[in-house]
């Protein structure tokens, strides 16, 4: 008997079962293990009286020899514990021939030659930072009609996720002594990256910033 596996969950706002063409299952030998990656939604179900979380997924086996291929699905649960096996899968690349792929030294040479270099004026007062640094160090979330801003979670979990750019919400600098520090940002936390390969990434981080002369 052929075993099949589901590639993800189907979300719907209708009481009827999803149409058959909306569901994707494949033979188990064509799948690989996946893992919960980034937490996208964290809320609490008022109907079930339990917490509810949604994560993006990625292949468990990655890198040069990893065969897992992400399908862009998500995983959701109210009681999942980090490290537990997921009951959904990702696809598997059955052809792992790498003879046409550049090796690590070649990739580094390409990045060194073609990679971006960002120059700043020696007197530049406003530098970049990572988004998480900006949130952690005092950025505030305001809502129209409220005079006091709310601290933002470092992963942005409490940011408004619906609607349009209608001016109902906005992000601003802290109002205390941290304002100047946050306004000038934090170069050490900033990063650029380069993606390479069929389904694996190679990340290039600083030092790639330089003052202009």
TrEMBL record:
UniProt organism field: Forsythia ovata
Xref: InterPro entries: Vps62
Protein name: Uncharacterized protein
